[in-house]
Design a protein that fits this description.
about 350 residues; Methylamine Dehydrogenase, Chain H; about 0% helix
């Protein structure tokens, strides 16, 4: 089973997959055609949500794993600073954790969000922070303890965590109301959080629930960015892109994009080009202008397979990968033309 992929260049990338019954980090130097074992995390992963991988550069990155079989549950974070030649790992207790999200908010400042099993639409969250690149972790807040929530999200399912240099970070959720897009922001490296006000366009304020997806940033100082919010109602749904030019301090809604899929996979390339895919047979959409406008990609002969993608990973306007899951198992596809044609990465 393959849990997650993070490609760092046209030929280099990292994958977390199950090897001999345990989750392991694998590396590729041929564009994903073949993979070598880099590090064993020592425990199986219960699901893809129990794994998070973040490589800001080809040489430096982190992998986090929830060991749900441990009592109490534990999180292992493995890190490398030399392209996988050496690894260091730390395991700490994270009671109740079943999923994990990891993001770098600076050269050595990391934020880890561990969430528990969803019950009645509520997913308890605990935030851990590290100021030394992952050697030491400190619990910064927990939504399950009164007085320690520090503004962490309330009821809802977490869709992701994003951070940028300078200590700013965002948590996004599903199942928000149309009157409050579920995007939470921290300006102090993950210690305190607040619901960030995002304007809802007229016509979408009542009768909709909202799924928000993590923002992406690019450009000088990573000040340009975009995030997507999916508004779902009885008569259909739409994607509403939000864009920023001040590093996420403010977000401006753009024109709604008709889109009825109930779950989506989103990715942005470092230059701001974006892709979004619905998991119910909806077309692959692409944005060439930083998320403001979206249009279907005229896909080729393997679109039926790409429609099963659980993750998209683009590194440029043309080069991207899709991790897919279907009746035939797991596969990694690759495109060299922005998503029109796809083929097996090892083909």
């Amino acid at each position: 089973m393959v849990y997650a992929v993070d490609m760092t260049g046209p030929r280099t990338g990292w994958m977390v997959a199950e090897v001999h019954g345990a989750a392991a980090v694998l590396g590729s130097t041929d564009g994903g055609a073949s993979w070598r074992l880099a590090w064993s995390l020592g425990a199986p992963a219960a699901s893809a949500q129990a794994v998070s991988i973040d490589f800001p550069t080809p040489a430096r990155g982190w992998v986090a794993l929830v060991n749900a079989a441990a009592r109490p549950e534990a999180v292992t974070v493995a890190r490398t600073a030399d392209a996988g030649q050496t690894w260091h790992a730390l395991t700490f207790r994270a009671p109740g954790a079943s999923a994990v999200h990891l993001a770098a908010a600076g050269a050595n400042h990391l934020i880890l969000l561990a969430t528990g099993p969803a019950a009645a639409g509520v997913m308890p969250e605990t935030v851990y922070v590290s100021a030394d690149g992952g050697a030491i972790w400190v619990r910064a807040g927990c939504s399950c303890v009164r007085g320690q929530a520090q503004g962490l999200p309330g009821p809802g399912l977490v869709t992701g965590l994003t951070a940028r240099n300078g200590g700013a970070a965002w948590i996004t959720q599903q199942y928000g109301s149309g009157q409050a897009v579920p995007v939470y922001r921290s300006t102090d490296g993950g210690r305190a959080w607040r619901l960030q006000p995002l304007a809802t366009p007229l016509g979408y304020r009542r009768g909709f629930y909202v799924n928000a997806y993590p923002p992406a940033f690019w450009g000088p100082g990573a000040r340009d960015g975009a995030l997507l919010a999916q508004f779902v109602g009885l008569r259909g749904g739409a994607l509403i892109p939000y864009t920023t030019s001040d590093g996420g301090a403010h977000w401006a809604p753009q024109a709604p994009v008709p889109f009825g899929a109930q779950a989506i996979t989103v990715d942005f390339a470092p230059g701001g080009q974006g892709w979004v895919l619905g998991r119910t047979g909806k077309p692959l959409l692409r944005s060439a202008d930083g998320g403001r406008r979206w249009a279907p990609v005229p896909t080729g002969r393997v679109i039926g397979t790409v429609a099963d993608a659980v993750q998209l990973d683009f590194i440029s306007p043309s080069a991207g990968w899709a991790l897919v899951s279907g009746a035939g198992g797991w596969a990694l596809l690759r495109t060299a033309d922005g998503g029109r044609l796809w083929s097996a990465a090892g083909g």
